[in-house]
């Protein structure tokens, strides 16, 4: 559970409103807030910062988290008068203040949290032993290997949400979130093949493997909502969303100190000892642009319409390099590498109509969708191709209220 680490506060008597009002207004923050006056405008700001830190020795884990919440209220030409405040307590929105001049307070809320987990595992060790019973392999009788490995990494996640009520008709919201991890690992070992007398060895070598990787999911959106002044049910919404999921991997596997030196090339060939380096990057990214409009027509009819565009891009670039054992002369291997691009453009539009008359509801709709695909294989097997197709999707639903506890519904829709 989070424990308050520190909070910012100011003199509560600096404002023009009674202290009790602000205590109620910022009840979610306790009694920590600012009051600032600029000309004829007053800003009330509450800030809460919570920090959490924990070490778990048994799991070699460290946890660090921060939670921040900021609430800002601004009003014009305030007067030293008592006022009634109507609060939507669950979200700290829609603060409405009535004075003699019926003044309106605008609200901005910012909320953020971040969590970081760090894992540092101790080095682990292992040994193996193998005995060869083939009679003609007396010079390669006992194989012994010892190795160790170590890894460390982190997992983190966080989000940021902000909303600003420009006025009673316009609302702007922004959100950002991410989670993911990165890690590093290294391992190494020694291998030796003894003869039957254990005095001589057929070969020996050392291995060194290390790498790093990461994966994340990042998303964000911004929405603007505009309500009609004449009719509160008439509304237009503009939205933008983005999501990206990048992944990376970079690793080396190497053979070192191959002996005896005079038989080095034969040992490399016989045991297929090759150093390799793998470097890969993949990403899935999607962006969505959307507009929706709803308007009533009279008391019985409602029209809904909107459009959406989705751009989706999948990419992969995996490069593979090889080198003879104990060598750093890496050569790009195209046969074991791959690179491709997959692009999708999706356009759609919809229109719907709703009729409500007493206990009867009728709702037909139609959606058009077009998809344009383009796939390119830049490296590796596969043939480039593209496609373009569209669909028209109808839907209809009926509903009848038979009584206080009985409803009859029916509908048709098609999926693509």
Summarize the helices and strands and which ones pair or pack.
Layout: E1 4-7, H1 19-25, E2 34-38, E3 41-56, E4 61-76, E5 84-88, E6 93-98, E7 105-120, E8 124-131, E9 142-167, E10 170-194, E11 201-227, E12 235-259, H2 264-271, E13 274-297, E14 301-324, E15 331-332, E16 338-357, E17 360-379, E18 385-401, E19 407-413
Antiparallel strand pairs: 1-3, 2-3, 3-4, 4-7, 5-6, 7-9, 8-9, 9-10, 10-11, 11-12, 12-13, 13-14, 14-15, 14-16, 16-17, 17-18, 18-19
Describe this structure in words.
It contains two helices and 19 strands. By secondary structure, the chain is mainly beta. The strands form two sheets. The protein has a 17-stranded antiparallel β-sheet that branches. The chain has a two-stranded antiparallel ribbon with strand order 5-6. The longest helix has 8 residues. The radius of gyration is 33 Å and the shape is elongated.
Q: Overall mean pLDDT score?
A: 78
Instruction: Name the helicity range.
Output: under 10%
Low-confidence stretches: 1-42, 75-106
The count of strands amounts to 19
Specify the number of helices: 2
Give the topology string: H per helix, E per strand: EHEEEEEEEEEEEHEEEEEEE
What general outline do the C-alpha atoms trace? elongated
Terminal Cα span: 45 Å
Radius of gyration: 33 Å
**Major sheet characteristics:** 17 strands, antiparallel
Q: Which structural class do the helices and strands define?
A: mainly beta
How large a portion of the residues is in β-strands, by DSSP E? over 45%
């Amino acid at each position: 559970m989070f424990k308050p680490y520190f909070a910012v506060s100011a003199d509560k008597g600096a404002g023009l409103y009674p202290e009790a009002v602000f205590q109620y207004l910022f009840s979610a923050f306790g009694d920590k807030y600012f009051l600032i006056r600029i000309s004829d405008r007053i800003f009330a700001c509450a800030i809460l910062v919570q920090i959490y830190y924990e070490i778990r020795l048994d799991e070699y884990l460290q946890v660090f988290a921060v939670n921040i919440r900021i609430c800002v209220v601004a009003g014009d030409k305030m007067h030293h008068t008592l006022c009634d405040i109507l609060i939507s307590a669950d979200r700290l929105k829609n603060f409405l203040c009535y004075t003699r001049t019926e003044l309106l307070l605008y609200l901005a809320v910012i909320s953020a949290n971040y969590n970081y987990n760090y894992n540092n595992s101790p080095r682990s060790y292992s040994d193996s032993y193998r005995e060869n019973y083939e009679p003609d392999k007396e010079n390669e009788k006992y194989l012994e290997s010892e190795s160790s490995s170590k890894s460390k990494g982190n997992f983190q996640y966080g989000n940021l949400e902000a909303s600003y009520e420009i006025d009673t008709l316009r609302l702007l919201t922004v959100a950002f979130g991410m989670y993911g991890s990165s890690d590093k690992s290294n391992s190494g070992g020694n291998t030796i093949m003894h003869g039957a007398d254990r005095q001589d060895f057929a070969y020996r070598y050392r291995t060194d493997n290390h790498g790093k990787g990461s994966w994340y999911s990042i998303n964000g959106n911004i929405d603007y909502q505009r309500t009609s002044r004449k009719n509160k049910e008439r509304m237009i919404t503009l939205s933008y969303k983005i999501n990206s999921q990048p992944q990376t991997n970079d690793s080396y596997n190497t053979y070192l100190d191959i002996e005896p030196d005079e038989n080095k090339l034969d040992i490399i060939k016989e045991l297929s000892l090759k150093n390799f380096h793998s470097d890969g990057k993949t990403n899935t990214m999607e962006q969505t642009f959307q507009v929706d409009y709803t308007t009533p027509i009279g008391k019985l009819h409602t029209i809904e319409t909107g459009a959406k565009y989705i751009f989706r891009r999948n990419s992969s670039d995996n490069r593979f390099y090889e080198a003879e054992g104990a060598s750093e002369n890496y050569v790009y291997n195209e046969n074991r590498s791959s690179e491709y691009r997959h692009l999708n453009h999706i356009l759609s539009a919809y229109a719907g109509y709703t009729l409500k008359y007493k206990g009867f509801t009728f709702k037909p709709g139609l959606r058009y969708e077009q998809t344009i695909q383009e796939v390119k294989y830049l490296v590796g097997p596969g043939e480039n191709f593209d496609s373009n197709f569209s669909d028209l999707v109808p839907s209809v639903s009926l509903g009848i209220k038979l009584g206080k506890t009985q409803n009859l519904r029916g509908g048709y829709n098609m999926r693509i």
